[in-house]
Design brief:
The complex is a heterodimer of chains A (380) and B (197). With 380 residues, chain A is an alpha/beta fold. Chain A has two domains: 251 residues, Alpha/Beta hydrolase fold, catalytic domain (Rossmann fold), CATH 3.40.50; 99 residues, Rna Polymerase Sigma Factor, Chain: A, CATH 1.10.1740. Chain B has 197 residues and is α/β, with parallel strands linked by helices. Chain B has one domain: Vaccinia Virus protein VP39 (Rossmann fold). Helix content of chain B is 33%, strand content 25%. Chain B contains seven helices and eight strands; from the N terminus they run αβαβαββαβααββαβ. In chain B, strand 2, helix 3 and strand 3 form a beta-alpha-beta unit. The longest helix of chain B is centred in the first third of the chain and has 12 residues. Chain B is globular, with a radius of gyration of 16 Å. Classes of the chains: A alpha/beta (380), B alpha/beta (197). The interface between A and B is medium-sized, with 23 and 21 residues. Chain A: Transfers a succinyl group from succinyl-CoA to L-homoserine, forming succinyl-L-homoserine.
Chain lengths: 380, 197
């Protein structure tokens, strides 16, 4: 038995985002080009002299570069994966140099639909080119070049972030040692695309969307965006967890026969929807859900995922959650079996956690024990 | 532990260097670790116990968390050279199903199990108590074992299922038992194959 040195986990503390500007045009999978762009990112820990301890954390639909730590003077500003990243945490910043990047098309500072289109001097809006998982990875690779990182010790992501981690190992097989693909899928199912389409229609049909150029009209399609978020939220929770949290609890203790909030779940969804519409960009939501829909690394291989994974050289940890029906365990197993049949080293854990898709953001003991055990073995 | 090392050495002797090996019920992955050291196998383990999954990850073993009772759907036919089940068959409900699955995804199967007809076990039963021993370390009320069978039973099952026994080794502790294995051996190891055609 190894001696277990269990140290109290700490926060990475106060962090500040950084910005990198890129002048070289980026060719996109859609055929378009971004002439120049900015990427906003954060780093935690220290890049070692050998530059081999870097770990890239990829964000999902509504995430950002702010993975861990807090912002000075800002309450409740913990990063979205703060429970994972920090000194003594499973992704230990005493060993690793961790990077979070806001993806292209995002709304947290990287070039996106609300940035100025140099050709028109106005916000890109709906003219912002379609960006894909592969494009994001290409942009992240350029940031890695800029930071002097030739090869990542690991690329980590949940959900859409897991797709980026997987894609890294296919686009840049020599630049990734380990990929941690969590609560993800090799491609979306029709049902999953259907949820995204409902969300998009809610935005596209909002009268204040103005064909995606709402910035110029000084309005925001908040109703559509809130509705999109409500649909999403339903799919991120499990039936059980929603039932446990809200059940059929009523605001007024008895039905009052109104379309105002009566059931607590209605109140929760409206609150989440309105909150989200207050800070997220509708065009980013549209673009990002399309990136999810389009992702399919086996598409160019007649649907043969094993063939698609033939280029990969990384080792993998795949994790899913029993109650996740948006990215169900069976979808993760598809990745696992394809990797195994490609002779890749792969481990797979199916975590019994009640919280549905959102489980990947929580600190379930078994989940974090698996991550810690795997990450501890990553050699640098 | 001495018994376990012996089990490992027998299994290692049945495996060629560089083979693809699947270990069903791989525990903390120590057998696969041994096989990757002495035979440089490409090994994968299957487990469904959360703590053992963590132990495998800590041991740097490829482990896949699934419930074997559901079979090995998702594993391609004949992908593995050897599929091993070391001292776990007696804890499986779907005995015939898993044996068929092992020989579907593997060219050969390696199975070891405690022999319930071992003389000390017979003696315990004669004395009116369920056997508890090194290889059957559980009480009747807390045992994970659900199938109680003997070397003779297993031979008969292989015959019935058309499974070819390529080799069989029986042991009492780490001593090879040649005569009367169903009486004198506490554990048996089998190397199994599919019938031709």
């Amino acid at each position: 038995m190894h001696a277990q040195t269990q140290c109290a986990a700490e926060s990475v503390g106060v962090v500040e985002p950084q910005r990198a500007h890129f002048d070289a045009p980026l060719a996109l999978k859609s055929g378009g080009t971004l002439p120049a762009y900015d990427l906003v990112y954060e780093t935690y820990g220290t890049l070692n002299a050998a530059r081999n301890n870097a770990v890239l954390v990829c964000h999902a639909l509504s995430g950002s570069h702010h993975v861990a730590g807090t912002y000075a003077g800002k309450k409740n500003s913990e990063g979205w994966w703060d429970n994972l990243v920090g000194p003594g945490k499973p992704l230990d910043t005493r060993k690793f140099f961790v990077i979070g990047v806001n993806n292209l098309g995002g709304c947290y500072g990287s070039t996106g639909p609300n940035s100025i289109n140099p050709a028109t001097g106005k916000p890109w809006g709906a003219d912002f080119p379609f960006v894909t998982v592969e494009d994001w990875v290409d942009a992240q690779a350029r940031l890695a070049d800029r930071l002097g990182i030739q090869r990542f010790a690991a690329v980590v992501g949940g959900s859409l972030g897991g797709m980026q981690a997987l894609s890294w190992t296919l686009q840049y097989p020599d630049r990734v040692a380990h990929a941690l693909v969590i609560a993800s899928a090799p491609k979306l199912t029709a049902q999953n695309i259907a949820f995204n389409e409902v969300a998009r229609q809610a935005i596209l049909k909002d009268p204040e969307f103005h064909g995606g150029h709402y910035y110029e009209h000084g309005v925001v399609p908040t109703r559509g965006l809130a509705l999109a978020r409500m649909v999403g939220h339903i799919t991120y929770l499990s039936d059980d967890s929603m039932d446990q949290k809200f059940g059929r609890s009523l605001r007024h203790d008895k039905p009052v026969f109104s379309y105002d909030v009566e059931f607590e779940i209605e109140s929760y969804l409206r609150y989440q929807g309105d909150k989200f519409a207050g800070y997220f960009d509708a065009n980013t939501y549209l673009l990002t859900t399309k990136a999810l829909d389009y992702y399919d690394p086996a598409f160019d291989y007649d649907g043969d995922l094993v063939a698609a994974l033939g280029r990969a050289k990384a080792d993998y940890l795949v994790v899913s959650f029993t109650t996740d029906w948006r990215f169900a365990p069976s979808r993760s197993r598809e990745i696992v079996y394809a990797l195994m049949h490609s002779d890749r080293r792969v481990s797979y854990a199916e975590i019994d956690c009640p919280a549905g898709h959102d489980s990947f953001l929580l600190d379930d003991a078994q989940y974090h024990a698996v991550l810690r055990a795997y990450i501890d073995n990553i050699e640098i | 532990m001495s018994y376990q090392r012996y089990d490992y050495d027998v299994i290692a002797n049945w495996i060629e260097p560089g083979e693809r090996v699947l270990d069903l019920g791989c525990g903390d992955g120590s057998l696969l670790r041994h096989l990757s050291t002495v035979r440089q196998v490409r090994g994968y383990g299957v487990e469904n116990d959360p703590e053992r999954i963590v132990a495998c990850a800590r041991n740097g073993i490829n482990v896949i968390q699934i419930d074997m009772e559901q079979g090995l759907a998702g594993f391609d036919d004949g992908f593995f050279d050897h599929v091993i089940m070391s001292l776990s068959l007696q804890a499986m409900r779907n005995t015939q199903g898993i044996l068929a699955e092992m020989l579907r995804v593997g060219r050969e199967a390696v199975v070891s199990f405690p022999n319930f007809a071992y003389w000390r076990h017979r003696q315990a039963i004669l004395n009116g108590r369920m056997p508890v021993s090194k290889n059957l370390p559980y009480q009747w009320y807390d045992t994970p074992n659900v199938r109680f069978f003997t070397i003779a039973d297993f031979d008969a099952l292989c015959e019935q299922e058309g499974i070819v026994i390529h080799e069989r080794l029986a042991f009492d502790e780490d001593k090879v038992i040649v005569d009367e294995p169903n009486f004198l051996a506490s554990v048996a190891l089998y190397r199994l194959g599919r019938a031709e055609g």
